[in-house]
Amino acid sequence: MKKLNKDVYEKAMALHQWIMEQEVVQEYQKYEQQMSSHQELKDLEETLKQLQQKIVQAKHTQLDCRELIQDYEVKKKAFDQHPLVYNYLILKEEVNTLLHQIQDDINLELKKKS
User: Are 28 and 91 a contacting pair, CB within 8 Å?
Assistant: First the structure.
């Protein structure tokens, strides 16, 4: 491995480690794990997917799908308002903001050096 490539690799690994150590990232991962093992949420998510498919199919065959849409909206609201989902989505946004900030900082430094 060339020295430059090795330096870049080591810096990338250090950045990765720093990101993974951030409290917001660790909290996000905790909620992600809790959601993936929460059977009620998994079942509700599957129900939402099935309702989406039924709505698309009903629209495609030009059937009235207002009841399906209402049912979907009620279940989607319940899903979104579940404490695990709510916190997960907030943390996901915070992690995305952090990653965008890092990306912007990297791009700014690269522009300075070119």
Answer: yes
Quick: pLDDT tens for 74-104. Answer: 999 999 999 999 999 999 999 999 999 999 9
Sign of the dihedral through C-alpha 84, 85, 90, 91:
positive
Q: Where are the domains of the chain?
A: 27-113
pLDDT category at 13 given cuts 50, 70, 90 is very high
Length of the chain: 114
Q: How remote is the C-alpha of 104 from its chain's centroid? A: 20
What type of residue is 46? E
Rounded to a whole number of angstroms, the CA Rg of the chain reads 21
